[in-house]
Design goal:
This protein has 125 residues and is α+β, with helices and mostly antiparallel strands. It has 1 helix and 8 strands; from the N terminus they run E-E-E-E-E-E-E-E-H. It has a 4-stranded antiparallel beta sheet with strand order 1-2-6-5, with no helix packed on it. Strands 4-3-7-8 form a 4-stranded antiparallel beta sheet, covered by helices on one side.
């Protein structure tokens, strides 16, 4: 049997969508586990595409996963236990602190470049 792969197609209105397919041809309908904080996510659906090239996977995101901090939804193959993908959200104060730190780092690097450029201009006159 070929290895199962998952390709994300979109995230729209709280529904994560992707396409499941086998690397080399076809195989049985995939059995997928989707968990958030080690609890199953309800409402997950796997439906065959009409052109028989794979299966459409739809995952309604649990409302409790949308909160401050970093949250991860795990998608695994039930048959092999292999991780197919993760859905990760970063929101709230954790994100704000990270962006502020990156901006501070960029400002420091820009100040260093300005000093080096000014020093270069003085030395070449």
């Amino acid at each position: 049997m070929s290895q199962l792969t998952l390709t994300k197609t979109r995230l729209f209105e709280g529904i994560w969508e992707g396409v499941l397919s086998y690397g080399e041809g076809t195989g049985p309908e995939p059995m997928i586990n989707v968990t958030y904080q080690e609890k199953p996510v309800p409402g997950v659906s796997v439906t065959a595409h009409t052109d028989s090239t794979g299966w459409a996977l739809r995952i309604p995101l649990p409302p409790e996963s949308l909160q401050d901090g970093v949250q991860t939804v795990l998608i695994t193959d039930s048959a092999t236990g292999a991780r197919l993908d993760t859905i990760t959200f970063i929101a709230g104060e954790a994100l704000a602190d990270d962006i502020r730190a990156e901006i501070d780092l960029l400002r420091a690097e820009l100040d260093m470049l300005k000093r080096a450029f000014r020093r270069h201009c003085v030395e070449t006159m």
